[in-house]
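Sequence in, structure out. Go.
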Amino acid sequence: MDTLRNLHAILAEADLEFGHRTFYESLRFAAFYAATGDDDIDNATDLIVMQKLLPKVNGSRRRIENVLTKLLAVSDGSEAAPRLPVTHSKLRRMLGALRANQFVSFTE
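Output:
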């Protein structure tokens, strides 16, 4: 779960990092998700980010915009379709709201 470590480093820039419990729960979720027959780690990571990480992200444009931009780059990947499509869509909406209102939270 190198992606989770990368996300942790990005979130830490705005003091939004997550702890060991969230990391453990994320690994546990990924294991259960794989047991359902879908072993695509990106699908599991997409759901983990939406359920456990993004709800913590909120704040002013000055504090959050750089973090959201970096998270969007991680979710985008290098292919035609986003690597983490659900997360990518949410981050685009959050960035739009942030730029329009100078503040953003996970809830819309």
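Check: The chain is about 70% helix and 5% strand. The helical segments are 2-12, 20-35, 41-53, 61-76, 85-101.
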